[in-house]
């Protein structure tokens, strides 16, 4: 007689097949005319994604497996290089780890972010954010589309309309557009202290520049534009940096 499978194995198999322990495959592709270096950061120490950083040349794509309960972000770095001492750094989106991977704590940068929650209460969700700034256009396309699970992105070249005092330059070229919070760090621009509420945290002429271009992205801390997209917990996603020609949001 064959030995019985351990009860814990059977339970885990049941949970996996029922979707409770489901994972999502997130494919990151680069359609920019230059190399980008994606960043994958996890807030939940018990649910991590690896690797945390790598290079994607023009036209390349790479799939990562996001486990159940994963809560993290994905962004991209540009204009990266390694100096004579071996330190790795980037002109935009740098995680300041000094290496191509981004372990440990993460410091915010003027970059375009996607936040993911995988199998959070039985659903997935993602949010496009330019709350800290912008460096690249991107689009997220889910594998299973529904009324609430739709494609979303920020595909307009915001660097071209960036206010002068928010521009980030590299060799006299505009490479990113910072947010007012990142640039000025005041309670009003960062919605802290007396401004830490929906009533007191208001849009500004700066945030309106982002909102006009990317109306479905999260623009500032108390932004109320329904920027979070919810999907079934078995949904996979494709993130495209520099999508060729996509609308801001399509069904």
TrEMBL record:
Transmembrane domains' residue ranges: none
Signal peptide residues on this chain, from the entry's feature table: 1-22
PROSITE patterns linked to this entry: THAUMATIN_1, THAUMATIN_2
InterPro entries: Thaumatin (IPR001938), Thaumatin_CS (IPR017949)
Keywords from the UniProt entry: Signal
One Pfam short name: Thaumatin
Name of the protein in its database record: Thaumatin family
Protein source organism: Arabidopsis suecica (Swedish thale-cress)
């Amino acid at each position: 007689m064959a030995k019985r499978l351990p009860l814990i194995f059977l339970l885990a198999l049941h949970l996996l097949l029922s979707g409770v322990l489901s994972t999502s495959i997130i494919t990151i592709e680069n359609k920019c005319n230059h190399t980008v270096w994606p960043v994958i950061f996890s807030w939940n120490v018990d649910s991590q994604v690896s690797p945390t950083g790598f290079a994607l040349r023009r036209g390349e794509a790479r799939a990562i497996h996001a486990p159940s309960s994963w809560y993290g972000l994905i962004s991209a770095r540009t204009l990266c290089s390694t100096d004579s001492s071996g330190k790795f750094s980037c002109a935009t989106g740098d995680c300041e780890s000094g290496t191509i991977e981004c372990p440990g704590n993460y410091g915010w940068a003027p970059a375009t972010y996607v936040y993911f929650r995988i199998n959070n209460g039985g659903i997935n969700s993602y949010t496009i954010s330019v709350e800290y700034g912008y460096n690249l256009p991107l689009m997220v396309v889910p594998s299973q589309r529904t009324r609430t699970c739709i494609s979303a992105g920020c595909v307009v070249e915001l660097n071209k309309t960036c206010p002068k005092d928010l521009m980030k330059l590299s060799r006299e070229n505009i490479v990113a557009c910072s947010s007012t919070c990142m640039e000025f760090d005041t309670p009003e621009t960062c919605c802290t202290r007396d401004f830490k509420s929906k009533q007191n945290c208001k849009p500004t002429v700066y945030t309106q520049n982002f909102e006009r271009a990317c109306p479905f992205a999260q623009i500032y801390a108390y932004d109320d534009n329904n920027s979070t997209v919810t999907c079934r917990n078995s949904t996979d996603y494709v993130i495209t940096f520099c999508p060729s020609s996509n609308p801001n949001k399509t069904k």
